[in-house]
Amino acid sequence: MFRDKAATTLQNFNVYTNKASRSKDMESITSFLLELDALKQVNRRNHITADQSGKVRVENSAEHSWHLAMACWSIAELFELKVNHEQLLKMALIHDLGEIDAGDTFLYADTRMDAHIDERAGITRLQSEPGNGIYNLSELWEEQETGCSPETQLIKVVDRLLPFLLNLNTQGKTWIALGIKRSQVVAAHAFIKDSFPAIHQWLAAQIDYATKQGWLIED
Question: pTM here?
Answer without folding.
Answer: 0.86
